[in-house]
User: What shape does this take?
Amino acid sequence: MSESFLVKSPDDMFIPEEASQEDKLLAKSAREFMDKEIIPISDEIESKKHGLLRELIKKAADLGFTSVGVDESYGGLGMGEISYTVLAEKLFGGQASYGITWNVNIGIGRMPLAYYGTEEQKKRLMPKICSGDYVTAYALTEAEAGSDALGGMKTRAVKQSDGSYLLNGQKIFITNGGISDIYTVFARLDDSFAAFLVEKDMPGFSTGKEENKLGLRGSSTTTLFFDDIKISKENMLYHEDQGHYVALTALDVGRFDLAAAFMGEAKYNLMNAIKYSKERRQFARPIASFGMTQKKLAKAAGQIYAAESSVYRFAGKWEKLCSGLDRTADDYGKKMMNILRVLSEESSILKTAASDILASVVDDELQIYGGNGFMEDYPAARAYRDERVFRIFEGTNEINRAVIAKMLTKQIRSEEHTSELQSH
Ligand SMILES: Cc1cc2nc3c(=O)[nH]c(=O)nc-3n(C[C@H](O)[C@H](O)[C@H](O)COP(=O)(O)OP(=O)(O)OC[C@H]3O[C@@H](n4cnc5c(N)ncnc54)[C@H](O)[C@@H]3O)c2cc1C
Assistant: This one.
């Protein structure tokens, strides 16, 4: 039975004001990094200047932003789920192309290894990810397998007599596709699914051209091709027939950390809208003085307050459930999977709510900028374009709502069943 807040109230709750001094400093330095190192070079990022994203991941790594949530013995900084949430929020607002690059790199790209990797895999790869020398990606989607990612999967691994696997197939729309070193790739293996760590130099691996996108233009999105790649068993993640658990756990984390990121982007854009509405004058007054502008700003503030409260509520609960977990233990992945399954529908709720809130905030922001909002010289246009995909990836909002509804109806059925049994 899920511990969803809808059926069981938590006995304590976390709020961001109660963050540790260490997390407050982390938030401050992450925000300063975005304001000083990333946002001023937005045009270069958006034009996909060669090598720039990797350079900027390395800069983030030098400040420890790629090491949070990883045990010290693998080159990490330790720290917990609240620290991770703080970074997810702060390293996004104002430059979503860079934000998504960082987010996928240490989220769905890195988590499968962090949770399910063997000691040898983690010792071999994690220090390079933490130092920013390696970038990661998560490859599930295929041309005919989007929302039905497992059911429609055609990428296939075949076990060889020497214990290795031969991988063939294609993945599409992969974030960090053109800049990564390590790809977590999901494939059919007989009647089940397996997860593999594909390294960029493996013979038979190649990437397609960069996609021409509506938004997140600075981020890397490509097809991946696997042509008879021989993968040793040392590069398999978790158990041979349990790759689907790896895929789903990563999405449980990914949907939540995206919610934190969208909330950060909403805050940034509200601040822009407030600033502009105080500066822009019409009818001899700042447009901020008009009731209809104020209504937009107040609506956004309320939505962001709700998003922030619920994101950190989740973060606090997640960290509490993880307290005492040994990140180096063999069963770390299994234990984390059980925790994340409990939080799964809340992760979907937060992803859909935060993306819808961001959509509303940037739409109103663009309206407040008037005609300037439609011009790429002003920040509202890019935020408006970038936002659109947040309702599509890591499970469309329809699919996430289906997850929520399925879980709720399951709970209601099981409660009815329990009360029926009790009344007999
Ligand atoms: C910029 C970008 C980056 C991405 N990055 C990654 C990545 O790093 N790794 C990765 O693996 N994938 C990635 N994706 C893929 C993304 O997760 C998929 O695009 C998404 O899951 C939707 O799949 P689809 O595009 O095939 O749409 P479809 O599944 O074809 O859906 C089309 C429409 O039908 C609706 N629909 C489908 N099934 C149902 C249903 N059962 N009930 C109600 N409505 C339904 C959908 O909600 C949608 O509106 C990325 C996509 C984009 C655009």
